[in-house]
Amino acid sequence: MKLYRRYRYAVILSVVWLVCLAALAHSEENKFKLKMGAKGKICLNCHADFQDKLKNPFVHTPVKTGDCTGCHSPHASAHGKMLSEEASKVCAGCHGNMVSKKAVSSHKVVIEGGCVKCHDPHSSKNKFNLLKAGNELCFGCHKDMGDAIGKVKFRHAPVAKGCLTCHNPHASEKSASLLADAVPSLCLRCHKTNSPAFAKQHMNYPVANARCTTCHNPHGSDRGGILFDNVHQPVANRMCNQCHMDPSSQTPFATKKAGYELCRGCHSNAVNEMLGKNKIHWPVVGKKGCLNCHNPHASTQAKLLRAPMIPLCKTCHNDTIQRQERSQTKHAPIQQGNCTVCHNPHASDTDFLFTQPSVISVCGTCHDWKNHTGHPLGEKVLDPRNKNVAVTCESCHRAHGTENKHFIWFTPMDEMCTQCHKQVTR
After folding, report:
1. What is the Cα–Cα distance from 209 to 183, expressed in whole angstroms?
2. CB within 8 Å of 416: residues ≥ 6 apart
3. Ramachandran region of residue 407, left (φ > 0), alpha (ψ -120 to 50) or beta?
4. Which of 262, 277, 306, 367 could form a disulfide with 257 if both were Cys (CB 3.0 to 4.6 A apart)?
5. Domain end: 114, 133, 152, which one?
6. In a domain, 54, yes or no
7. Quick check: 58 and 126 in contact, CB under 8 A?
8. How many domains does the chain have?
9. What pLDDT, on the 0 to 100 scale, is given for residue 42?
10. Does 270 reside within a domain?
11. 297: phi > 0 → left, psi -120 to 50 → alpha, else beta; which?
């Protein structure tokens, strides 16, 4: 009987203990609960300025529902603005599909997680919570483009409607440059190639599947038909058949000759001079010939170059341009985007296609080296390190840059000098 009483007493104590624990837990839980109806509103006690944001026509859903803690940590955070995670991860929690895995091109600002560079995370007067409306937002980063478009005589109509007429703001699965579709499919949304007027403008060539941007600037230009500002003379004179087969032939876009032989018809003196040199730049005699570097129809660049000189040269000489970019001292001709100050882009009788007979004379076009140094230079001065090589400016300097100041090969300076002058080595 005593054993039974003890057992019953133990059971009762256990039940009481469990009830007390439950009550305590419930009490602790309530202690951290917000007041009834306080979701979001309690934040406004301190952040009263957000009341005005709620008046904007476009309010971010978490703000509208008062779910501040959906993005912010209410107590402490390792991230700015008390965000619960990095800004890009916070946005990706709801908007995780902005950049498809199949994307051909992606907006740099999106990839870097800079959503708030375009969107206000709380509210805005503009659709999609954009910080600014229309092209004004895009031109905030693409200022050069905005300035150029503002100055042209003939502006492409879609530009006035807005950049998003042709571009996707986040990423594109179909084309480079964030284009909503590839060219010419994108162009054909507005331009009807089967109309008589269109055919006449293009000398009856079947351009429906041609790349429009080989001749036309998609944003605008100072020339009618928004042709690029620099137009090849046959194109300007509407004489396409000077280079191409007749528009009624089976291969209307085929050229009448291949490589530099096609260009030789008009530029015979220039081509003959190139071919008469000892050293020829390989693109000249390549399969595409002059078209490796020049656009045959029109270009934004002088001399119909396919791109500004540095990016164009970089397509083949990437290591050289990268060395210059890393160099502590920048060589002015490269920095200014003019490789042809030192090199002939077509052909030369000297190594490295120099514009002058020697390295010393090339450097001398900008640098008065005789006043710069009394060091012996020239063909008669042999390099002690290699008797087959003469001492030139490049014996001490590397023209495209080094990690040292003034393009010198070694630092400290005495280490470079003692490469040859071993008698003064300490």
Report:
1. 9
2. 396, 408, 409, 410
3. left
4. 262
5. 133
6. yes
7. yes
8. 2
9. 84
10. no
11. alpha
Q: Beta strands of 184-334 (E only): which ranges? A: 220-221, 230-231, 279-280, 298-299
Domain that holds residue 386: 328-338+355-424
Query: Which tokens hold the place of 83?
Result: 């965000």
Residue 11: pLDDT band with limits 50, 70, 90 = low
Q: What is the pLDDT of residue 27?
A: 44
Q: What angle do CA 48, 52, 54 make, to 5 degrees?
A: 105
Which residue's entry shows tokens 């530099």?
A: 260
389 Cβ contact partners less than 8 Å away, ≥ 6 residues apart: 382, 383, 395
Task: Give the span between the Cα atoms of 227 and 235, in whole angstroms.
Answer: 10
Q: What angle do CA 139, 121, 128 make, to 5 degrees?
A: 60
C-alpha–C-alpha distance, residues 257 and 288, integer Å: 11
Q: How far apart are CA 241 and CA 255, in angstroms?
A: 9
Query: Which of 133, 159, 174 marks a domain boundary?
Result: 133
Is the residue at 286 inside a domain? Answer: no
CA distance 178 to 233: 32
Distance CA 262, CA 243 (A): 7
**Whose structure tokens read 């571009």?**
167
pLDDT tens digits for 113-169?
A: 899 999 999 999 999 999 999 899 999 999 999 999 999 999 999 998 999 999 999
In this structure, is residue 127 part of a structural domain? Answer: yes
Q: Decide: residue 56, CB within 10 A, 0-12 exposed, 13-18 middle, 19+ buried.
A: middle
